[in-house]
Amino acid sequence: MFKGRSISALAIAALATTAQCQQLSYEDSVTALAYGNVATASSSEGTVWLNVTGFAVDQLPHIQNDLGIHSLDNLEMLTTLAGLAQNAASKGQWGDIVYLYSAFAMNGYSDYLNVSTVEMQESLLDAITDQDSGKVDVDLAELYASTSSSKFLVEAFQGLKSKTNPQHKRWLRETCSSANLAVKNSCRSLLENVRGNITWKTGSPRSICKYGCCISWSANATFQIENLTNAANYCINACGTSYVSCEVYGVELQGTLVDQCLSNRATGCR
C-alpha cells in the first residue's frame, strides 16, 4: 500500500516526541492527532508517499489517489501520518485512514489536525460525499464512524451524516474558490521558498507544501521550481481575503501545460 520510506517502526516514536514526550499506543496517537494535541517544531524537508490506489475500493471509494508530498518543513509529521495510516490499513480502521489521509494531504499542518476545524471537516465531508449527486453517503459515514479509533472522529463522522448541503465540487471554472482555503501568510512563506529556486523538479510528487499551504499541479512535468512563482503569486493577489484557494489553468512549466493550484492541501489539482 505504501512506498518510499520504511516508516512503521518510526511512526509511534515520532508522534510520542511531539505529543508531550510520551510513548503512545496507536489508538492514543490517533486520538491525540484528532484532538489537535500535537505541537510540531520540525523544519525538516523531504518527500513522503502515501499510496492507496486499488486498496479497499469498496470501503474507501473517494480515497483512491496515491499522494506524494515534498514538504519544505514537516517531513517527520508526514512520515508519522503515513506510518499510522499503514497501521490503520492492517487493522481495517477505515475511518482512521480517511482522517490520516486528510491530515497527510494538508502537509500534517498542526492547525488543521483537530477534527472540528473547517479544513478537516471539509476534507472528511469530501470523503463521504458522492461527487456526482453531491449527496452525503450515510452508509459510508456510518462505516467510518464505526471504524474510527478516536471518539472525536466517531463524533465527527456522525455529525457529518446530517449535512444536507455538502461542499461544492472544487475547481469547476472559477479561479478563486471557497473550498480548501489556506492562510495567505502561509502561502507567502511558501512562495518565498519557490521564488528564485532553480532546483529541477521532474515527475511526481506533484506538490510542494509549507505550513498549511500547498502548490500542486495536474500533470507530470520537468521544470525549475521557480516556474511555479507567477501562478502562485497571481492566486495570492487575485483572492482578496486573508485566505486563498485558487487554480490557474494552462500554466506552462517549461514546455508542459498544467493546471496549477494553491490551497491548503496537496490534492488541489485532481
Q: Uncertain regions: pLDDT < 50 for 5+ in a row?
A: 1-22, 165-173
User: How many domains would you count in the coordinates?
Assistant: 2
What does the main sheet amount to? 6 strands, mixed
Form type: globular
Radius of gyration: 18 Å
Estimate the mean pLDDT confidence.
85
* Beta-strand proportion: 15-25%
Give the number of helices. 9
Written as H for each helix and E for each strand, in order along the chain, the element string is: HHEEHHHHHEHEEEEHEEE
Number of strands: 10
Which strand order does the major sheet show? 1-2-5-6-10-9
Q: Could you estimate the helical fraction of the residues in percent? A: 25-40%
Oligomer: single chain
What gap, in angstroms, lies between the N and C termini? 20 Å
Structural class: alpha+beta
Describe it:
The protein has 270 residues and is an alpha+beta fold. It has two domains: 24-158, no CATH class; 172-261, no CATH class. Helix content is 37%, strand content 17%. It is built from nine helices and ten strands. The protein has helices spanning 8-18, 26-35, 75-91, 94-105, 118-127, 138-146, 151-160, 184-194, 229-238; strands spanning 46-50, 67-71, 182-183, 200-202, 207-210, 213-217, 222-224, 243-244, 246-253, 256-263. The strands form three sheets. A six-stranded mixed β-sheet has the order 1-2-5-6-10-9, with helices on both faces. The longest helix has 17 residues, at 75-91. The chain is globular, with a radius of gyration of 18 Å. The protein starts with 7 loop residues before the first helix and ends in a 7-residue tail after the last strand. Residues 1-22 and 165-173 have low confidence and may be disordered.
